[in-house]
Amino acid sequence: MMRRLIAFFVILILLSSFFLSGCLFESTDEGFTRDDLKTPKILYISNPPTSFPSPLTDSTPTYSYTLRWTMSSVYAGYGGVMSLEIENKGTTALFIYGYGLKWVNYTEEYFRSSSVYVYPGETESLGMLAFRAPSVPQYQMYTIMLKLCVSNPSINKWHDYGTVDSGDRLAEIKPLKDPRDYSIQKNIKNYYSKVNSLVNVSAVESVVEEIRTSQPGNYSTLQIAEAFDWVRSHITYKSDDGGDYWQSANETLQKRTGDCEDQAILLASIITALGGNARVSIIEGHAFASVFITSDGYQLPRVQQSLRSFYGTNITMHVLSDDLGYWLVVDTTGSMYAGGLPANASPTSAALWDNWTFESTDWLIQIDVISGAN
Fold first, then answer.
1. Which of the listed residues 159, 174, 189 is the one where a domain comes to its end?
2. Cα distances (angstroms) measured from residue 364 to each of 79, 179, 214, 248
3. pTM for this structure?
4. Which residue did the predictor score with more confidence, 75 or 350?
């Protein structure tokens, strides 16, 4: 009996050593090296000044519209983003040359320019607006403001109503989070093989053509944003019907649906086909893609300004960093824009780049997407 007990404890110790040494989570030697990494060209979109409809008149035609919007979580001092669309319910054409948000009882206003005609019966997107928030966590009233011109068809002229308020709404301003510790592992063998077997560069050739038509030239920051927006606008989120099934990039394209890891694998395939370097990042209950943007931290403000020019508003950019450089977060199921916070994450301060944390995970696994790895 004593010998059996001793044998049992020896086996237990060996098994404990096996688990603690990480043998079950062994990393592959494969993955990106510095020589593999391609820095995207930093380009900017130059938006021309708004061209107002003319001629103008003092006559005040009637108008009617409905606003619909999606707002991210809003954090104290940090703010959030919103995406707005307008439906013209009236009989006169509308011209929206800007919209903004104002917190009631605060002086700051956050505007973006636009140049959108909305004809009777039509619905148009006004784009995305980034805004800051008061520094105290609380429920706070806000109003959406439009800069509005309305046509008067009887005299073929337009009236400029200036800034029009849409009424007060209530939003929750959440507190900033404390940083959370979590382990980071790269290229765990089973995940590395699985992710890279589902990446398909040839399957996304037509998508890459579309992106290069919209943002021509060599691989660039604008193409990254265009790829992100393509996935968000063409792939509908759909959770797995039982189990945890991971689709290939080709399957997600065919179905035009997919959950977080499906969209991450598709976006990583597109980035790779464009000539860039992508990762699929996995945390507890979620997955998202990230894209290498630079090894030089001094270039981060330029990358952010490029993304701001693409979206037409002062978005806050978020990155992950390691010994190779900086990786832009591109979570199509967690954020409205390339560089936004991933799902299950929160800011830790109102500052930029990497002042954010995951809310609940104890680990992060990063998988390099290597074209032709399998």
1. 174
2. 26, 14, 34, 22
3. 0.90
4. 75
